[in-house]
Design goal:
Number of strands: 2
Shape: globular
Largest sheet: 2 strands, antiparallel
Low-confidence stretches: 209-213, 230-267
Oligomer: single chain
Mean pLDDT: 82
Radius of gyration: 25 Å
Length: 347
């Protein structure tokens, strides 16, 4: 289960990884564009260095002011663009200049890989605050990982160009709900990073005490078994051969002093179910629980947000979807979904 992004952990790793790369290139006094594109084995890191250079150039050009000349005139802007194209072919960085750019590139690459939602949320907010949404289109060429999210953002901005800061979260949520392709698998990228500096995705998420997912699963099973009419044994039959133990027996065998489920839920409640579901979880729940129907999934989440209690929410799901879509309560996605739901109603 995912938690909040641990920014400090990402910063520390970016620093350590950058030092390893700089040490590898210790004999190189300067770096041109070609060498930057091959600086690390992770293409995204290399392209983000160029992205940062491009952004710095745009910033410097925007700061050129003169009471005598109109730098906003189309012919001047055209010449500046040509100058940028020429400069991009004549990049030269010394180690001192490269180091902070590399650190930035590693930092942003890791975030893009492990949490594309958070990455694009930050990029989108920054573009809105700076009144520079057009920059997203120009930056597309620098994104080699999860670029389909940025493409979808750009297309939606053509329809909704006047995006306000307070609309950014809902705007991105809607895009994520419409995208058919899931985020790219993070493992190949982690292996590339790991060749220089040990890395684990779990290191980059805040440690939160997990809710007792197994207990939630068994509570849901027990409720369904107890309420199932005699002539409808479909759900019960999933567990009859396993002969699940009662909740009391589960707690007694594991640890007599174990906290109750309610106590555990109190420690890590969530206030917004929709915002607590990551992009990866959204794809998994939609496919596994709702037969790939994204519209239905979003509608169910909206209804669960306003349910009066956890019990009402569970009954709603059992009555309308559990049997219809043949939910397997030993499936990790099912138990994880109910676990999130329980945390939503923890008091």
């Amino acid at each position: 289960m995912e938690g909040n992004i641990n920014e400090t952990a990402i910063e520390n790793y970016a620093q350590a990884f950058s030092e390893k790369i700089m040490l590898k290139h210790a004999t190189s006094p300067t770096f041109d564009g070609k060498s930057i594109l091959h600086l690390t084995p992770i293409a995204q890191v290399n392209y983000f260095i160029l992205k940062r250079l491009f952004e710095q150039w745009k910033l410097e050009v925007s700061n050129i002011k003169s009471p005598y000349f109109n730098f906003d005139a189309p012919p001047v802007q055209e010449l500046l663009q040509k100058l940028m194209n020429t400069l991009s072919k004549n990049i030269r960085l010394d180690k001192k200049s490269l180091r902070p750019l590399l650190y930035y590139a590693v930092n942003r690459s890791i975030l893009l890989i492990i949490s594309p939602y958070q990455y694009y949320l930050e990029e989108l907010k920054r573009a809105v605050e700076n009144d520079n949404l057009d920059q997203l289109q120009e930056n597309l060429k620098f994104h080699k990982v999860n670029a389909h999210f940025l493409s979808a953002i750009i297309e939606q901005l053509k329809i909704q160009p006047n995006l306000a800061k307070e609309q950014v979260n809902d705007f991105l949520d809607e895009i994520c709900a419409q995208i058919s392709n899931p985020p790219e698998d993070i493992e190949p990228f982690l292996q590339q990073f790991n060749a220089f500096e040990p890395i684990q995705a779990s290191d980059f998420f805040e440690e939160v005490e997990e809710v007792a997912e197994e207990v939630v699963e068994k509570e849901v099973k027990q409720e369904i078994i107890e309420e199932q009419p005699a002539q409808k044994k479909k759900v019960y039959e999933q567990f009859s051969e396993q002969k699940p133990k009662t909740l009391h027996e589960q707690f007694s065998e594991n640890n007599e002093s174990q906290h109750t489920l309610a106590d555990k839920l109190k420690k890590q409640p969530i206030s917004d179910l929709k915002k607590s579901i990551s992009i990866n979880q959204r794809f998994r729940y939609t496919n596994e629980l709702f037969d790939g129907d994204k519209v239905l999934f979003n509608d169910v989440i909206e209804k669960l947000e306003i349910a009066a209690s956890y019990e009402d929410a569970v009954k709603f799901l059992k009555r309308n979807y559990a049997q219809k879509y043949n939910w397997d309560y030993s499936n990790e996605d099912v138990t994880e979904f109910f676990d999130l739901l329980a945390r939503k109603y923890a008091q």
